[in-house]
Amino acid sequence: MIGRLREARRGVAMRLAFAAVLLWLPWLLATAAWGIRLQSPLLAGLAAAALALLAFAWWQQQRAHHDERWLARRLNADPRWQDSADLLFADPASLGPLQELQRERLVQRLANLPAPDLRPAWPRRPLLASLLLGAALVLAALYWPTASTPPPATARTASEAGEIVATEVALVEAGVEVLPPDYTALPARTETALSLQAAEGSRLRWRLRFSPQPEAVVLRWHDGGELALQREGEHWTGEHTLARSVLYRIAITAPLPPAQDELHRLDAIADQPPVIRVVSPERPLTLREDGQRTWPLDFEASDDHGLGTARLHITLAQGTGEQVTVSERSLALRGEGESKQRRYRHALDLAALGLAEGDDLIVRLDVTDNRAPNPQASRSPSLILRWPMPPATEATGMEGLVKKTLPAYFRSQRQIILDIEALVPQKPRLAADEFLSRSDAIGFDQRILRMRYGQFLGEENEGQPEPPPGMEGEHSEDDGHDHGPESDAPLGTAISVLEDYGHTHDDAEAATLLDPQTRALLKQALDAMWSSEGELRQGQPQRALPHAYRALEFIKQVQQASRIYLARVGLELPPIDESRRMTGKREGIADRRDGLQPAQTPDSPVPGLWLALADESRTPDLEPMSDWLETNADRLEDPLSLVAAIETLRAQPDCADCRQRLRALLWPLLPSPVAGVAERPEPDAAGQAYLDALSAEEQP
Q1: 7, 88, 223, 486 - which has most CB atoms within 10 Å?
Q2: What are the backbone dihedrals phi and psi of residue 139, each rounded to the nearest 5 degrees, phi first?
């Protein structure tokens, strides 16, 4: 029984092996054909080995699929086995009495029957597809036309004496292997084009093949440098480290075809410094809130090839005026995310840093990339956390004097709050009419102050105190408007009329001088003043207090928003140049009383060459422009395009398109015209008569 099952399993394994050979053999033949076509035995051998491993893996996977369970299912497909073929592969010791009886019956039946044929069917469709694709690849390798087929090397004789003319050499095969620097983590690649782009610092390896073979091959750079290639068998190889963008040409002993004798360009892609974005806080200046113990910071950094280290620099400025003391510290941060983009989060403990009232806490994040050997660093904008000083209280000694001498509408919001707080406790002792009158008076002061701040939002200044008799149509110095200094506009002009009889704050467009956030704060302050005024006019000063407090808070925020905040640092004077002391040198020191000096036009060959290119009958002199490019290449955005255009025109002087292309590249380099002093216009008849009269009066 065991022998018959073993024979059936051996047939299954043989069928699978033959199927694997027939399935993968066309691909092996196609690989060999392409290896012969490309003349690369190593590449063909590697591909054949990879295909053999794939065929073996496929065969092993099929064998694992056709196991004992598969055999049992195949036997159970025959009704003679009564769906009990699993008992033939089970351990007899684990079977029950009935299972043992059934197993013995199956064993006897297997002994009396011939060995079952359990071989799987041939995979006809995969075999047919593999055969057709393999044949197509073999035919393509045999009959596909080659674009770089070398022309026959023909030696042309100039005479019967046997004088040999130079044979034209063609570039048959070209390849440049690009090995980027390790820090970029970019894979190595092979380019078939001789012009390419690569990361700065990449190693380039040329592999060229010519027909017929020249005596020497040199890569000649546009700046005069050369790279001699070495011959290795049928190929010429050389290696170069790409430190900057260059142009080069292949130079050999024999001339190349015109289509191949051209300039090639190598662009070095410079590594970019990291980019830092501040996520939180949203503003450069943050005011410390009551009860705040920590300051959460959130940064996001990205780099083109990968980020390195990150350090958070912390500066604590304490003191005021010239007595500012500065202490600095730094700590390393570990970001979250990938190597090219990370998130840096950290919360500063304000108590541990020693932040107190009136202090500034300044932080910035420095991030480096992984460029080797000199990493690049970037710095985030400085963020300031300020603990404001407590607001200064008004002098009580002058408070009564101010109330007596100044109009009521000059009262501040703080004074209105003090008046309300003084009136509320007096309610039980005052009559209802007197209490309502005093509350209404404070409400009137609140209205005047609201109108005063409303001018900044384009509101009309209504409700101001009535002027004295006889001055109803004029504006006084204290009418609540900001008149500013006297204007120098000529009499009768539109500007002078507007300044004399109009107010720009009555126009809503004047409010655009404030940023949207400050306008929103001021609008909230006016709304709170309006609510406070309504409660005061109704004789409810205790209800007006919360609105008055809220208006004061918004006003303080507006005052803070209208300032420019700078980080407080210690006094740092520029170093003194000791080499100029006691020498009497006055270079670079100009007399401010000197008049206008003529501007010096920079000496550049660009205008002359641009004009010469416009005349097709002239042959432009390109040498001055080439010399100028060598010294001014760093100032240009794309100097290689100019070099290529000059070299092309030098090789083809009669090319009209080349001249126009060079002129188009020179146009942005033309110097701007120097600004001159405008001459005084000639006077008209009346003006000339006036000048003549003045001259006559000056004469004795």
Answers
A1: 88
A2: -65, -35
Question: What gap in Å lies between CA 599 and CA 673, rounded to an integer?
Answer: 10
pLDDT digits over 264-279, tens only? 999 999 999 999 999 9
Token pair in block for residue 657: 């398109």
Its pTM stands at: 0.49
Compute φ and ψ for 95, nearest 5 degrees. -95, 150
Q: Where would I find the beta strands (DSSP E) of 333-380? A: 336-337, 341-349, 360-369, 377-379
Long-range contacts of 65-70 (CB under 8 A, 24+ apart): 66/12, 66/16, 66/120
| Residue 646 CA from chain centroid, whole number | 34
Task: Decide if 307 contacts 274 (C-beta within 8 A).
Answer: yes
682-690's contacts with Cβ under 8 Å and 24+ in sequence apart are none
Separation of alpha carbons 455 and 69, rounded Å: 93
Rounded CA gap, 18 and 28, in Å? 15
**Residues facing residue 521 across a β-bridge:** none
Of the candidates 68, 49, 60, the residue with the CA atom closest to the CA atom of residue 20: 60
Q: What DSSP element (H or E) covers 609? A: helix 606-614
For residues 272 and 81, give the distance between their C-alpha atoms in angstroms, rounded to a whole number.
75
189-204 pLDDT per residue, tens: 999 999 999 999 999 9
